[in-house]
Every structure is written in structure tokens, then in C-alpha cells.
């Protein structure tokens, strides 16, 4: 009889620890639905950017990426971002896909512009800078160091 009570108590402790872990994980992971207004930006390349990625100004998260698609006419990546309601973006804001370190994921970095005209909800930020992939950057460095122009045999 005492063995059943000990096993039941240990099972209850395991379940309690699992629940505490789940609540903590939910709070830290920022899985809550994004709120704010939508803004889009078009890029030639967004290598490694995923839905749920942060949108940041000066390193502070002000929104999330909520969608990615291809523009069927221009064949460019269209990124939809949800921006906090209390943040207004000037129409000349610079948008770039940046990396959170060598092993980190990608995020959208916004550099505020100086225009007095603000982007309305559902509007488009047109001043975009394409991502430079690590492989591309490494290739450029290798060609600079070796003095090779990268054009192949001549």
C-alpha cells in the first residue's frame, strides 16, 4: 500500500514539473498572437527568413513576420510584417534582412527614415536592401584574398 502512495506521489511531481515547464516555455517563446498593423516589403532575396521572425528597430522587437509569398509579376519575395500599433514608420524607412550572428536566425531590421509621411496600415515599405548570404560573402572574401576575379579560366 505504501508503495502505491509513493508511486502516485512521484507521478504527481513529474506531472507538476512538466506543467511548470510548459507554462514557462510558453511565456518565454513569445507564441502569443501578433497584434498590430500589417506592412509589406518586397525583396529580391530573403534567404533564411521565416514566419515568426522578429522585426526590430535598434535591436528592439517591434513586430513579427507573419507571411511570405512570391509576387507573380515581379518574381520578388513579398514579406508581410505585423508592426505594433504604437510604432509609426516613415515611408523612407530602410528595410533589410539581417542575421542574429553566425549561427543565429534571420530577422528584419528597420532603420527609420526622416520623411513626414507615414506608411498606412497595409502599406508598403519600398526602400529594401537584399540579404547577402554567408556563402556569397565568403566567396567574395576568398576572391579578394587570392586575387582571382571569379571569372574562370582565361
Structure keywords:
154 residues, alpha/beta, 8-stranded mixed β-sheet, 2 helices, 27% helix, 30% strand, extended
Which class of secondary structure composition applies to the elements?
Answer: alpha/beta
- Element-by-element helix/strand order: HEEEEEEEEH
Identify the strand order in the major beta sheet. Answer: 7-1-4-3-2-6-5-8
- The residue-averaged pLDDT reads 86
- Percent of residues in beta strands: 25-35%
Number of helices: 2
Tell me the radius of gyration. Answer: 23 Å
Quantity of strands, as a count: 8
Q: Helix share of residues?
A: 25-40%
Give the N-terminus to C-terminus distance in angstroms. Answer: 87 Å
The dominant shape is extended
Uncertain stretches: none
Number of domains: 2
What does the largest sheet look like? 8 strands, mixed
Description of the molecule:
The protein has 154 residues and is an alpha/beta fold. It folds into 2 domains: 1-32; 37-140, no CATH class. It has helices at 2-29, 134-146; strands at residues 37-43, 54-57, 60-70, 77-83, 94-99, 106-111, 124-125, 127-129. β3 and β4 form a beta hairpin.
Amino acid at each position: 500500500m505504501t508503495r502505491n502512495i509513493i508511486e502516485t506521489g512521484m507521478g504527481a511531481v513529474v506531472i507538476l514539473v512538466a506543467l511548470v515547464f510548459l507554462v514557462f516555455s510558453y511565456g518565454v517563446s513569445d507564441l502569443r498572437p501578433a497584434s498590430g498593423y500589417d506592412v509589406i516589403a518586397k525583396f529580391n532575396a530573403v534567404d533564411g527568413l521565416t514566419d515568426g521572425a522578429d522585426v526590430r528597430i535598434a535591436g528592439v522587437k517591434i513586430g513579427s513576420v507573419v507571411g511570405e509569398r512570391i509576387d507573380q509579376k515581379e518574381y520578388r519575395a513579398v514579406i508581410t510584417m505585423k508592426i505594433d500599433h504604437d510604432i509609426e514608420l516613415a515611408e523612407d524607412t530602410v528595410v533589410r534582412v539581417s542575421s542574429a550572428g553566425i549561427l543565429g536566425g534571420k530577422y528584419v531590421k528597420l532603420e527609420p527614415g526622416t520623411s513626414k509621411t507615414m506608411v498606412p496600415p497595409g502599406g508598403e515599405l519600398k526602400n529594401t536592401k537584399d540579404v547577402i548570404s554567408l556563402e556569397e560573402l565568403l566567396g567574395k572574401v576568398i576572391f579578394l584574398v587570392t586575387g582571382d576575379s571569379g571569372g574562370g579560366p582565361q
